[in-house]
Amino acid sequence: AVADGDLEQRMELRSHTQDETVRPLRGEFLKVARTVNNLVDQLSVFTEQVTRVAVEVGTEGKLGGQAQVRGMSGSWKDLTDSVNTMAYRLTAQVRDIALVTTAVAKGDLSRKVTVHVAGEMLQLKNTVNTMVDQLSSFSSEVTRVAREVGTEGELGGQATVPGVAGVWKDLTDSVNTMAGNLTSQVRGIAEVTTAVASGDLTQKVTVSARGEVAQLAETINQMTETLRTFADEVTRVASEVGGEGLLGGQAQVPGAAGTWKDLTDSVNTVFRNLTTQVRDIAQVTTAVASGDMSQKVTVDVAGEMLELKNTVN
Fold first, then answer.
1. Calpha distance 142→148 (Å, rounded)
2. Residues 265/285, Cβ–Cβ less than 8 Å
3. Helix 74-105, helix 27-54: angle, nearest 10
4. Residue 9 near residue 1 (C-beta atoms within 8 A)
5. Residue 5: is its pLDDT beyond 80?
6. CA distance 115 to 75
């Protein structure tokens, strides 16, 4: 029965004679019977304990269990110890790996699997540690690029994460694309604003952008266009008045608002006042040249124009 895996059987400690008399076993027979029954008991306990530990670890996922088989010795004790050693090591290995992966899930990338393992568990250990290294490198690089761009204002940085693949490579590429686009956009805008500050109003923001950056680019281009129109108009009127002697001109800057409208209005007021003053003085001097002494310069003036007015009058 034991050889067939049946541990329910036990040897009787008595014998039946032909005349159906029951007699207890004695001597060597009793010793053998008790030894066999003790063996079966220990095998039964051993089997139950090993099965329990196997079910807890392999099926229920309960680690830390140990087989408890009292009175075992020799090979049976060695077997029990081997099972317990296996369960203990598996517990230590799984818990160490779980500790590291839990730390990673919480954002702690300082942990590594350090438990001693071999075979496929060693491969798993190396895989987890490699994953932690790559995540740590990815995190450090993204943080560096974000700090350089967002805090220190250093554009052009790229995250470098050797060995990444799959989603991590996609994430790295996305971060680098974002940083690259932001660099191109900011530098394109800076180039135009620098040109404007230097008096060059021919530049336009041409970088590809969307959303608020696109709105900013459009605003700067509109600003540049307004400034260019303002400069062209002021130059035109100044040339007409100061170079060609054509009075009455006015600067036309469509869409100008705020300070630019105020500046345009101020320039136009200057030209309008100058036109009125010169024409009034010209009218009087023309009258004098024609022998008409009844005319007087009446336009409201100040400064040197007032002196001229008084002189003419």
1. 10
2. no
3. 10
4. yes
5. no
6. 29
